[in-house]
Amino acid sequence: MKLILALALSAAAATPALRGAEPRRRLEALELLGAEESAKVEAEQEAARAAALAEAMAQLKEAQDMMAKAEALKAAAATAEAAPEAPKEPAAAEAPAEERVAVAAPAAPAAGDWEAQYKALEAAKAASEAAAAPAEPAEEPAEEPAAEPSEPAAEAAAEPAAEPSDAAAEPAAEAAPEASEAKPAEEPAAEPAAEDPPAEASATATAEATEPTTTERIATDVAELAAGGGDPAVAAEAAALVQKLQAELKEESALLAALAAKLDAMRGDAPAAKAETEPATTEPATTEPATTTTTAEKALTVATWNIAAINNNPFEYWIHSEDEAYNKLMSDVQAFISEPGDKDVRVKEVFTDAMWDELKEKMKGAGWAGVDDVDDLWQDDYRRRKIVSGFLKDAELGSKRLASMPDRVTNTIRSVDGKKMRPTVINCYEQEFSSLQDWWTQWKTFIFETEVTTKSGEAPKPVYGLLQPIKRSKYPAISMAEEAVSLPLQTLAGAIFDAILVHMMQNVAADTWQPLRTQLCEALNRKKDSRTLDILDQKYSDADIVFVQEAASSFVEAAKAHALGERYSIIAPASLDPKRDQNSLVLVKKGFGSFEEVDVLSSLSDAPVAAGDLLVVQNDEYVLASFHGDTNGLATIPITDAVLGKVGDKTLIFGLDANTYEAKRDGYQNAEEYQAHIVEKGLASQRGSTKDMDPKLYTTFNARTYLQPQLNKAVSYEERFTNVNVDRNPKDFVLFSTSLELVSTSRDNTAKTSSSSGEPKYDNEKMFPTLKFPSDHAITKVVLKAKN
């Protein structure tokens, strides 16, 4: 039994060699490598991958062989103890077999000296065999251990294969024989079972192994020794070393798995992702055996993301925030508008008669007709209204677009020399207002004295020159008389609206609202593009294809200059729309092949699709499409059918914001009906390959606050789950040809990774955008593979 302790100590001492620093250094080096795409670099990486795995497997194989030998020696010692004693010489003193073995065994060498330990074990084995030689050779001790080492060796060889991804299984199996050949043969001829089993049998060996492992057997023997009255101190030390050995073997397996994953990343392979930790879709994620490599080798990782959201107004949508000052501000604004009480004063007490007189003179100086008619409307109507019940909550005023139209035109102007912002609460205007009068001075100067140049080569014009008449043909709520004076009337309404907002903010949060606005603008507006690019670069670097919708033209240039542009071809439509600035893009990992744009819209003159909304590109194998649907989703089916008409025998992958809705309503595209349509057309989506889908797998969850001009669409925070104006819908899809099948899918509205699954995290309770997630659409990710 003391020999068993020696074996345990020796096996534990061998572990530091197994845990050499080389795998860690390789991992650190791999993290510094870029994903070079040229054929030469790929070949070098493949060679490095094979060499690194071979070296790592050689280290593990060496430890496994030593363990197998230790097991054989233990079995020999056990046989020697159980064998009948040899005839004694008369002069020899009797001693128990255990003592004879102990006397014959040399002193244990220093820990870490594996060669000396191995020689000591061999000497102990020889001594035990000599001491225990029976009078009649009933059976040879060497026969029994010959069968035992094969089982732990097979088991140990299978352990690393269970940890890495599918992509690493085949290279690891190939590297194992190389490692075996590289190691000098140390086994005696009587132990052929210590050789590696075939690589393809390793998974079966793992599944069928029912015998305890070598370390488990040693642990059992140590426990029996302690229970049988052995030296407690020695037993405790041996038990501790056994535990350490088990832990370090497990750590080494994890290290090898990490190494394989890093090497996969070098080569550009995408391991099959885990299933989304959400309600199951109708197309469940598939799980391949550990020995299957085709999934990882043929997998395509695809993401789609509508990156738009807050364009100008940082207060427009409810956002999830941990900042109590923000939450209090928004709560107080809601209370001010919902139940204003005595704060619902007359308009003339906020936007004064003196302000109107100054505005009237400015408008006459601009040469506008109808200013006197608007003066009558001011005197008889607008100055008498209540600021909340008579103005902010006036649904008819909203339908006439008298406040929202001038806000849309002048809120944030893209001038050749930079953005120009109207002095108002609801944008990222950088100067502060010390008082309502201070705001008014800045507002007049901006509208009537600031000039902008919206197109290169054009003459500059004053901001008021950008305003357009409101047509009754488009907005029938406006009367013919109001249409005739719509320029001065909308300017008055816009001034009143801005004055009320400044008055309200000074009333509810005079000291905090402007610093909070600066903070929100920094996160949601000024750094929106850089934050969006960082999320794609850091969280979705494994994607082969990324579909983007509602991207500004500035985003295209920023993406090309970003690290993302080093790995992806950024494809934008030839009809890039710089004015509307909402464009669909396709990002394709370099080395995937070149693509050319396909014209689809020329055959769809009636579809409500603007320039830039659709991008379709193709090469010899794939048709890739990115699309942003109209608000009601009515163009989604016609566009889908038109794109299908261009596919032919190629494989289609189509990422889109379909603008589909959970509820069935007239004039809106229902999500389930759209899913049924694409299945009828021979497609599948991340929502399933059948007509049934879960409509509660939402990709939007947002609602407008009271700090925006369309108050008829405002929602109280308490009604965020129930109000019809809340946009909580399954809008985003990835469509694909049925020659592909879904491996896994996930949604992301946090830019975080789930600690349990390692997949992107979606929070069903959280409205977005947030300070960390800059879009009002979730990212949808899928992993696809070829069916054959």
UniProtKB/TrEMBL annotation:
Residues 80-95, 147-179, 199-216 have a biased composition (Low complexity). Residues 235-262 form a coiled coil. Residues 1-20 form the signal peptide. Residues 80-109, 129-216, 270-293, 746-765 are annotated as: Disordered. Residues 137-146 have a biased composition (Acidic residues). Keywords: Coiled coil, Signal. The keyword Secreted does not apply. This is Endonuclease/exonuclease/phosphatase domain-containing protein.
